[in-house]
């Protein structure tokens, strides 16, 4: 009973400690001191910027631009609007395309004492995606940048210029940032850049990306940070991901800097629910407070941080960040190894540690990794489909699904501890792992990864759970495997090794103090609980960060394994504590809640289900469809399609969509065609394209039986039409003038095939009107738009 209470204390108090660390600072009111960042002041700009959706090229975005120009004048900056037509190469599903737009960056300069010194740039983007007001992404960043400039002015003239760069077209492909760093004369003056972003509506703001050789930058960040959950693992992980922000452009240009964002409440990311009402004031305060501290440290410094070896860093309780050079990680692991040896020596003196027990403990830890990953993977596949639209069903009930994963991961951990202690649990342990692996095949089809994890877990159960293992020996084996894994990470990816090394150090300290969990004095037991609470609380923050930012629940098995380091002496049920029944009850609770997540629809007025419907007009065939682009139509969409009294049929939506949509025939409406003109100019062939009146986006697929050379878009080289008979795609937005594609042909005559699609915001006036949606359904992204498509064959 005593150990059960200690285990409960570690888990409950640790969870509360982790929750407390995720709360962030209280928002300051508009009456806060002038030198401070105040969410109350920044919120006034958020309310204007995020009043309505404002994608690039819309009148609403132009209104935001005008507001920003006025705000820069109010701040005493001389604003300028950079109008540009940049483009970028992008890739979806392995197919490359070119995306471009007419963008309008808003730029101002706060003069510093030394006008020749490298400048600090504060960057955020003001455009939103269609249908989303973008209160988080990125009105919060823009408002923070404006408030930071105001606070800097209140502190006195900075040492160097501060460039305020508010970009347009970020959502289309970082286009505003590309335009600035490719064309604007101020770009060459930027010596350090701070970017502010968001991927949701709440949560702690974190600094998740830096430039290369970030050692001196991190030293400056750590010395001035007012408290941040930022860590080097997040920076390392983000570098491995395909995600981009405007910061990617400045980083590619070799400019050092810091990239900040909050990422909680991701249901609101790119959603109509991203309103001022749903935006967390704490998150806004946290973002601005951290970015202001970083800006002050750069703007008023005599010199900028230079380049140096990357640092290892992570937060501890109280808002402090610990940072050290990568080689110091070896010293941390050496200290853990020494403490482990002390613990093993003391346990051996009491004859409570055996090498066979250690082997079983090591295998039990590997079981937590393999079986835990299999169980958590099964939970994700059983809860919802793999696509982004399907994942939104989990985002709508994020807390429930997070509880599912925590219960299942904890259940596997407790089962491993009980099985190692009791022995004769090969069948139970193997069934849990094997059933999870097989369950992965039931939901979502053939899954070799899930099957392999389940099989590995079952094999480990057979090897580990045949005989009883003592607490001290099993804990020693578990920690020894952790030490080996920490050394492997230190050697191959030093910025990430702290994730294992720090909990391992705390656990090894407890092991040495308690003679591997066997000493019984009250002060030793209390110290062991205290160490467990601190370690579990720190890991709880990591669990939440991984859950929020990555749709890869299997990674949480690693954190369950690390948690085992800290709670093993209480979870091992040789003397009281949690046993097999407790473990199975925790697993059962997780599975029961998983059933609720799967079967209980989460949709509500606050978190509505997304619908994606279009009026699709094929100008060649002279026919129209009402089409649905969602993987599974919501009830409102099904009723809409049924109202046309026709069987759903595939509706060709190329080039806007690569796959046919689910559609029903609808009345034809008259629509204008885009302008496609082919001509010769200066030994080049020129294709001029412009969208039809009212269309915001033009999409064209181009193909020629010949390989064309010197292809350029608006005079800039582009990787298009290089391969005969292969389609190249261009997406152009917010530009009534359209674009100019020029090329040279190897022959005097040739053919260019064109597939075009034009997207106009809003339902066409001549079409049957859409019925009202219920409160738990919303139009998402470009839904409720008109798409016209057709083909042309142009020759020269």
Q: Please, could you describe this protein's structure?
A:
- This protein has 796 residues and is of the alpha+beta class.
- The chain is 44% helix and 20% strand.
- The chain has 22 helices and 26 strands.
- It has a 10-stranded mixed sheet, with helices on one face. It has a 7-stranded mixed sheet with strand order 1-4-6-5-7-9-8, sandwiched between helices. It has a 5-stranded antiparallel sheet with strand order 17-18-23-20-21, with no helix packed on it.
- A hairpin with a 2-residue loop joins strand 17 and strand 18 (684-690).
- The longest helix has 29 residues, at 355-383.
- The radius of gyration is 29 Å and the shape is globular.
- It starts with a helix and ends with a strand.
Quaternary assembly = single chain
Mean pLDDT, all residues: 94
Task: Please report the distance between the alpha carbons of the first and last residues.
Answer: 87 Å
Q: Helical region count?
A: 22
Helix content estimate: 40-55%
Sheet of most strands: 10 strands, mixed
Rg over alpha carbons: 29 Å
What is the overall silhouette?
globular
Please report the total strand number as a whole number: 26
Strands ordered across the widest β-sheet: 2-3-22-19-24-26-13-14-16-15
| Low-pLDDT windows of residues | none
Indicate the proportion of strand residues: 15-25%
Q: Give the structural class.
A: alpha+beta
What is the fold's blueprint, element by element?
Elements: H1 2-21, H2 39-49, H3 59-74, E1 80-84, E2 87-92, E3 95-101, E4 103-110, E5 119-125, H4 135-155, E6 162-167, H5 170-173, H6 175-183, E7 190-198, E8 202-210, H7 215-224, H8 232-239, H9 247-252, E9 257-264, H10 281-299, E10 311-315, E11 321-325, H11 328-349, H12 355-383, H13 388-395, H14 398-422, H15 426-442, H16 448-464, H17 471-492, H18 498-513, H19 522-549, H20 556-571, H21 580-599, E12 609-611, E13 613-618, E14 623-628, H22 635-642, E15 649-651, E16 661-666, E17 675-681, E18 684-690, E19 697-703, E20 709-713, E21 716-717, E22 728-733, E23 739-744, E24 751-760, E25 777-779, E26 785-795
Parallel strand pairs: 3-22, 5-6, 5-7, 7-9, 12-25, 13-26
Antiparallel strand pairs: 1-4, 2-3, 4-6, 8-9, 10-11, 13-14, 14-16, 15-16, 17-18, 18-23, 19-22, 19-24, 20-21, 20-23, 24-26
